[in-house]
Amino acid sequence: MGKDDAEEFSKQALAAFGWLSEFSFELAGRDHALSRDKSRPLYSAVVWSSSHLQLFIEVTLEYPRPALVVEFGPLVDGDVPAVQDISNRHHLTALVALKTGDEELAAEAGMVKGVSGRQLDRALRRSADLLREYGIDILRGDRSDFKKLEDFASERQEGLRHRYLLDAPGMHP
């Protein structure tokens, strides 16, 4: 896995999410990071934004697991928010879970079985389909789901914290 793989990911992501142009999204950038010895990629990302809607969509392939992460949200002062800006970055997996209540379906939005051409293409197209189906209101400019997603993420975080506290040694009632 090397720089060529990162370029191939970009091409496949652009093809799978090309329909975003129908909603006034334009390519805002591509990025990838290589390991220190430059022998393998750490991540590859493609970002679209809409100045009209003041929204962004970012598709990232993280190596070496691999994991596919699709995030979206409002632009902040006209720019894509920083990676650590969790209040302005929402995950496709959370949107699908919120809209359907189906955690298995939501997991499909981040599932990639490998980085071969066919496996990656299948995963990208599945995520693009899920975004189009469950994010259509957002893509049309409706921001009402952002608050619901924030609340959903907080509830999930609280549930995990509660579960881990209960599972910690000496913490059982």
Write the layout of secondary structure elements.
Layout: H1 3-16, E1 26-34, E2 41-50, E3 55-62, E4 67-74, E5 90-91, H2 92-100, H3 103-108, H4 117-134, H5 136-139, H6 144-167
Antiparallel strand pairs: 1-2, 2-3, 3-4, 4-5
Helix pairs in contact: 1-4, 2-4
Can you describe what's shown?
With 173 residues, the protein is α+β, with helices and mostly antiparallel strands. The chain has one domain. Helices cover 43% and strands 21% of the residues. It contains six helices and five strands. The protein has helices spanning 3-16, 92-100, 103-108, 117-134, 136-139, 144-167, and strands spanning 26-34, 41-50, 55-62, 67-74, 90-91. A five-stranded antiparallel β-sheet has the order 1-2-3-4-5. Strand 2 and strand 3 form a beta hairpin. The longest helix has 24 residues, at 144-167. It starts with a helix and ends in a 6-residue tail after the last helix. The model has no long low-confidence stretch (mean pLDDT 86).
